Amino acid sequence: MIYYKSAENIELMRIAGKIVHDTLCMLEQWIKPGVNTLKLDELAEEYIRSHDAVPSFKGYGDFPATLCISRNEEVVHGIPNKKTILCDGDIVSLDCGALLNGYHGDHARTYAVGNVSPEKQRLMDVTKKSLAHGIEKAVIGNHLSDIGYAVQTYAESQGYSVVRELVGHGIGQRLHEDPQVPNYGKAGRGIILKEGLVIAIEPMVNMGKAGVRTLSDGWTIVTRDRKPSAHFEHTIAITKDGPNILTSGK
Ligand code: MG
Ligand code: MG
């Protein structure tokens, strides 16, 4: 079931979204060689709780942390760990969620650690741009699948592939609501987008093939071919004035 949000609900979601945005901005200075990923997680949790919010991911299922931190061939859902040290040349995706006033925000970015190869930089740039192409289609009257079609066609036109097993989602009082928002598919399918729909659009783009698998920790998703993957996500409200990015920090 889809829960459409009122303008008041959306303003509350923007406050949650801003905390998530600001958390990632605060962490940027810490993304450098030699920092362990548990440190980033501790900083994020402290920041979120100090703003009277609650980390959305901690305790979701049995996920133990505030952030999902996924490096290089890890696609999403990496578990922060003291032994996992960021290295020069890594790319690292930080995915963060926060709950405030009963609503969740969900936002992810992939960062360069130190100096990354031009190939990895291009993967990040294309993934970020594929999210922008998806967001452009999040307008009243479009079909849901127009978003995934835009993401996929752009990412594939640049020589990359998009992950099929994990998708974006509706978001609101629950972190994951209907509908699912795939990053692939034909245009003109699925529900018609209406005012008040709030969704997380989150392309996961692989440098190599699309296939992924789950590591033995039960969470971490990696590419099957062990080539790098990038992930960008925004929480978007569909409004009369077009797509409204609730995790833009505004
Ligand atoms: Mg997320
Ligand atoms: Mg999400």
List the helices and strands and how they pair.
Elements: H1 7-27, H2 37-50, E1 54-55, E2 67-71, E3 74-76, E4 91-100, E5 103-112, H3 118-136, H4 145-157, E6 161-162, E7 168-170, E8 177-181, E9 198-201, E10 204-206, E11 212-214, E12 221-223, E13 229-231, E14 234-239, E15 242-245
Antiparallel strand pairs: 1-4, 2-4, 3-12, 4-5, 6-10, 7-8, 7-9, 9-14, 10-13, 11-12, 14-15
Helix pairs in contact: 1-2, 3-4
The chain binds magnesium ion (2 copies).
One magnesium ion binds at residues 106, 169, 200, 202, 233.
Sum this structure up briefly.
The chain is of the alpha+beta class and 250 residues long. The protein is built from four helices and 15 strands. It is globular, with a radius of gyration of 17 Å.
Describe this structure in words.
- The protein is globular.
- The two termini are 29 Å apart.
- β14 and β15 (242-245) form a beta hairpin.
- The protein has helices at 7-27, 37-50, 118-136, 145-157; strands spanning 54-55, 67-71, 74-76, 91-100, 103-112, 161-162, 168-170, 177-181, 198-201, 204-206, 212-214, 221-223, 229-231, 234-239, 242-245.
- α1 crosses α2 (37-50) and α3 (118-136) runs antiparallel to α4.
- The protein is an alpha+beta fold.
- It has a five-stranded antiparallel β-sheet with strand order 8-7-9-14-15. Strands 1, 2, 4 and 5 form a four-stranded antiparallel β-sheet that branches.
- The model has no long low-confidence stretch (mean pLDDT 98).
- It has one domain (7-245): Creatinase/methionine aminopeptidase superfamily (Creatine Amidinohydrolase, Alpha-Beta Complex).
- The chain contains four helices and 15 strands.
- It binds magnesium ion (2 copies).
- One magnesium ion (MG) binds at residues 106, 169, 200, 202, 233.
